[in-house]
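Appendix B: complex inputs.
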Amino acid sequence: MAISPPRERLWWKQPIHRVELIWILVAFLWGIVMFGMMVYWHAFGKHNLSNETYKVAPNEYYAKTEAMVSKYTVREEKGIPVVHPPPGSDVYLMARVWAWYPSLEFEQGQTYRLHLSSIDLQHGFSLQPMNINIQVHPGYEHVLTVTADQAREYSIICNEFCGFGHHTMVGKLYVVAK
Amino acid sequence: MATAAETFRICPTTGLKIHLSAQTLIKANAVAAVVFLLFGGLLGLSVALTRWPAVHILPANWFYLALTAHGFNVLLCWIIFFEVAILYFASAVLLNSRLAAPRAAWVAFALMVIGAVMTNVVVLQGDSSVMFTSYPPLRAQPGFYLGLILFAVGALTAVGCFFGTLVIAKEEKTYEGSVPLVTFGAITAAIIAVFTLASGAIILIPTFLWSVGLVSNIDPLMYKLVWWAMGHSSQQINVSAHVAVWYAIAAMTLGAKPISEKVSRTAFLLYILFLQLASAHHLLVEPGLSSEWKVFNTSYAMYLAVLGSMIHGMTVPGAVETAQRERGYTKGLFEWLRKAPWGNPAFAGFFLSLVLFGFLGGISGVVMGTEQINLLMHNTLYAPGHFHATVVAGTTLAFMAITYLVVPLIFQKEIMFPRMAQWQPYIFAIGIAGISVFMMGAGTLGVPRRHWDITFSDALLHYDYPPAAYLMLALNGLSAIAAALGGAMYIINVVASVSFGKSVKGAVRQAQPATPLPAAVVGQYGSVAHVRIPGTVVLVTVFLVSFVLYYFVNWKYLSEVWPMR
Ligand code: HEM
Ligand SMILES: [Cu+2]
Ligand SMILES: [Cu+2]
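Resulting structure:
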């Protein structure tokens, strides 16, 4: 039994049953397929998280965001500026307790360099209803190149706990048809 | 040898020589575990009811406090106290040995209790609601980290006593040949524990110093990397421990024997060899780490640790099937399963744990741990959905199941309410399967984890989740009630039996197979010619097909989001 020493003293010399061998082989191959899928997707898939990251001091990031906001703000909603940066440009989204700043407006079908960083705690960028989720760290500036392919209103939820107001942290991203 | 005779008793059921100090320590650790499960389980219920928007019982700050305390009490306290009990059982009891350094084992126990109480007291004060992961720059009171450190030092000391016992047993030749498979599994768990607890010390000590102001900065990414070297590896301890428990229960209830010692042991070995930086799958959508690093580590070097679990996924039911067929249940594919002792809570709990862990926990874990697919799930309720299937339906249910054997054997008490015990695994399993599935469902719809209010009632901007998300959270709340009921049935029965149960005299009936195996068969089996496991083959085939389908469905979902690079 499994709770007593093996009956066969030389258990490592016992042959393995065919059924077990086949299963081990199948499971091993399945592992290789799954590993291969991740590699394949890097080569041919269109949905890979960017590796482009820079170290950044919170006040520097704050300044970059403010510069963009002052240049491209097109309107305000509930006191929060909505920016409409030119396609292809660098867009800065700043996380802080408890807001995503500013609100963004993209053009459908256009590609943007979206920068994510926090100036205080960790936050979670969760784009709804598409359900893309990316961790946001203070001190790290993460640059994604995204293509907004559907015109509609998106919300950005925070999904990393960031203090007692965490559940009030919602931002907006609009994609407008040209 | 007069003293030796005094400090041992002979177990009338198994004939094992049981060291009394080991027995008392097993009792103490198991009792502590159950106390923390009670506390943590109630917190879990309150959290689940708060997440049900129509019920929403706790205010925000209490919710975050309760969630912090829930994670800590169940994941660390309940599980690790119980694992210490298992380590002592698998070394001292199964090897007929005395426990090394019982004094040190008591010190370990005291440190763990002090640490656990300290962290709880600090959390309950309300200004350390940082979740049990305590990601900086979020900062808790120093006592929070200090409690964790004391707890970890205690646990490490206990692991030391386990290894000491192995050495003693070997030197004093208390067993012949190799250690039993269950002990081998426990050794696996203990080796991983050393690595885990060391990582814990490496990260928690500087974090403690930071909380008192002696260190100026903790890099949040670095913290997560090392923290999860503890946080994830400790889940591999749980897996090793509960797989060992599966083998133990199969042996104790059915006399089942692994089909091949070699295969089962190698599968355990794979856990140790390919655990490496398992923390990677917690960091898949983090900035600042390369994709190569993520892909290699999240797959545990090409899924070789997953391979270990898939092997156990066949050998454990295979062992059961073999034992049942030897007993004469040979009709068709599944007579062995139909005629299994489903009324024995130890067996029922074990088999439900095996199935739920594999189908719900295993598949969802590998899918979520796929580098690109993680984008769809990170920090949504999918994550707690997944790990309630692993660490609750898998580990917790297995630990509950073996308790029904431990109470008569070690506490020498009869289970006081056998009817309640019979129902308990089913009710708990239904509840936990429910919370797992419904939290995963909500996560698929984008519902965040650790979030007080998805109606955003006091937020400036809003988002309307689809009605299905609300339905999922309501079903999750209902399942949580069932799970809590199942948990309560376990705790009440165990506490009552241990405190007021009738003492067991002589051998324990319950722990013996309904129909003993013919001695001649026992002698032969394990030899290749005797293995026939068609039922198990069907089960693992169904498993693999589900796995493959669910895996590729998620790639399909991924291909529908915004293109990005
Ligand atoms: C009655 C049984 C239980 C119920 C109803 C329950 C329910 C829940 C719920 C609803 C959450 C919160 C999800 C969120 O909002 O993020 C949660 C979190 C969690 N649960 Fe449980 N749970 C139970 C038992 C357990 C057990 C036995 C364990 C461990 C062995 C466990 C481990 C955890 C952990 C680690 C978390 C994450 C905490 C965090 O996000 O910091 N739970 N549970
Ligand atoms: Cu946030
Ligand atoms: Cu947050």
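Residues 60-93 of chain B form the longest helix (34 residues).
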